[in-house]
Amino acid sequence: MKKLCMILAVLASVMLTGCKSQECAPSALDVMMSRTSIRSFTGDPISREQLETILKAGMAAPTAMNGQPWRFVVVTDKDKIASVFASGFRGEMFTQAGAVIVVCGQTTQMRKPFGQPDAPEEEQPNMFWYEDCSAAAENILLAAHALGLGAVWTAGYPAMERVAPIAAALGIPEKVVPLCIIPVGVPAENPEPKDKWKPENIHWEQW
After folding, report:
1. How far apart are CA 61 and CA 36, in angstroms?
2. Separation between Cα atoms, residue 187 and residue 189, nearest integer Å
3. Can you say whether residue 120 is alpha, beta or left, with left for phi > 0 and alpha for psi between -120 and 50 degrees?
4. Which of 19, 67, 109, 142 has a CB 3.0–4.6 Å from the CB of 13, allowing a cystine?
5. Which has the minimum average pLDDT: 26-30, 113-117, 179-183?
6. What would the pLDDT profile of 135-183 be if each residue is shown by its tens digit?
7. Average pLDDT for residues 76-101, to the nearest whole number?
8. C-alpha 4: how far from chain center
9. What count of other Cβ atoms lies within 10 Å of the Cβ of residue 87?
10. What is the DSSP letter of 128?
């Protein structure tokens, strides 16, 4: 994970400043503290290489028992983006983006019953798909920012009235649930990140 963060930081520095050494690359903490939600994009395309780097970061997220329940649908075709996503709230976010990443979770998984290593695998609920895929989505947001791109988390699950039509339009299987929809693109705005540091929300040793 540390190696991936370093690679992403170096890529971002090269793209933004022309820097070719790690000495002037932003740290992982810099990326986390400066990231903010971007909802306006230029409409410029994103390269396949950039998208794969972002998705590699997503798949580097922590995952319970190494279950890796995340699945991703990446849409770059402008007509398809418009037909699937433009009719919702602030649809221009999606039509202006270079790509839309739908972060999904596999809600069941084939595995051996706990404590029975010789038993055959059986389909079991994946209790932690939501947490695992949330971690993957956060990595995606950070990676996009590290590459000089913008992105924003928009709601999917558990708003089923939003999830169902997107799943149907993209052919997502029944036991795979869209957790969130992330438009990614070249930013057309530069908002200041919000200061969310609130010491009063911390309880040391005990509540």
Report:
1. 19
2. 5
3. beta
4. 19
5. 113-117
6. 999 999 999 999 999 999 999 998 888 889 999 999 999 999 999 999 9
7. 92
8. 15
9. 10
10. T
